[in-house]
Amino acid sequence: MPWLAIPYPDEARRSRLNRLYGIQGIPTLIILDPKGEVITRQGRVEVLNDAECREFPWYPKPVLELTDSNAVQLNEGPCLVLFVDSDDDGESEAAKQLIQPIAEKIIAKYKAKDEEAPLLFFVAGEDDMTDSLRDYTNLPEAAPLLTILDMSARAKYVMDVEEITPDIVEAFVNDFLVDKLKPEPI
Question: How many independent structural domains does the chain possess?
Answer without folding.
Answer: 2
